[in-house]
Amino acid sequence: MDGGTATYLVTVKAINGYSGQVIMSSSGLLGTTTVTFSPANVTPTAAGATTTMTVKPVNIDSGQYNITITGQSGTLSTHFQDTNVVMTVSPGT
Asked: Are 1 and 59 a contacting pair, CB within 8 Å?
């Protein structure tokens, strides 16, 4: 099933003054579903830097799927707190 696109705003906050560039990525995708981030790299601030995640499900069955969001900066990598985005794909979407 091909679905429409969904967008999510992702906020990356600095911890203990960290300000290294963070490269955004995702995993857990099925079919030829695509996830893009704009911008793909963010520099965290105390207030939080934002990136827009766009999800486009393609060639997957109806159902719910988890997408895990990851931020990596150098050798540091983390899965964001509460980041399993549940995507529901229904007929006609």
From this structure: yes
Phi, psi of 79 (to 5 degrees): -95, 130
Task: Find out whether 56 and 33 touch, Cβ atoms under 8 Å.
Answer: yes
pLDDT digit string, tens, across residues 8-41: 888 888 888 888 899 998 887 777 788 899 999 9
Distance separating alpha carbons of residues 10 and 1, to the nearest angstrom: 26
Amino acid at 66: N
Q: Which architecture, in CATH terms, is 6-89?
A: Sandwich (2.60)
Q: State the CB neighbour count (10 A cutoff) for residue 42.
A: 20
The token pair that represents 86 in the structure block = 């549940």
